[in-house]
């Protein structure tokens, strides 16, 4: 029997970016998408994905807030979080680590960088 694919939830408000990420990751993982922070948090709770690819600048609830909420929930503490953002300042990364992100990827990135980061987090 084939091993169940690990699941990834992409939380990204830019449809083109979300779809591109889904294409990059879709052959190796079971991928779903949420387009804002509130919807993303609901899907994290219902789907319990192995990994969340989380944009920071989101409508209805920012990425830091979503990340922090996941980290506060004992049922979700095994969920890995990869923050993806155009914010490149060290303070942004520091804040991401403080709220519990496992890794940080800066836009724009190459498809291989996304795949490598995801593989590292899920290995």
In short:
The protein has 123 residues and is α/β, with parallel strands linked by helices. It is built from 5 helices and 5 strands, in the order E-H-E-H-E-H-E-H-E-H.
How would you describe this protein?
- The protein has five helices and five strands.
- With 123 residues, the protein is of the alpha/beta class.
- The chain has a five-stranded parallel β-sheet, with helices on both faces.
- The longest helix is centred in the first third of the chain and has 12 residues, at 15-26.
| Structural class by secondary-structure content | alpha/beta
CATH superfamily descriptor: Response regulator
* CATH fold call: Rossmann fold
Q: Can you identify the CATH class?
A: Alpha Beta
- The averaged pLDDT comes out at 93
Main sheet specs: 5 strands, parallel
N/C terminus separation: 20 Å
Provide a count of the helices.
Answer: 5
Helix-strand sequence: EHEHEHEHEH
CATH structural architecture? 3-Layer(aba) Sandwich
Strands across the major sheet, in which order? 2-1-3-4-5
Counting DSSP E segments of at least 2 residues, the number of strands comes to 5
In which range does the helix fraction lie? 40-55%
Portion in strands = 15-25%
Could you say which overall geometry the principal axes of the C-alpha atoms support?
A: globular
Provide the number of structural domains: 1
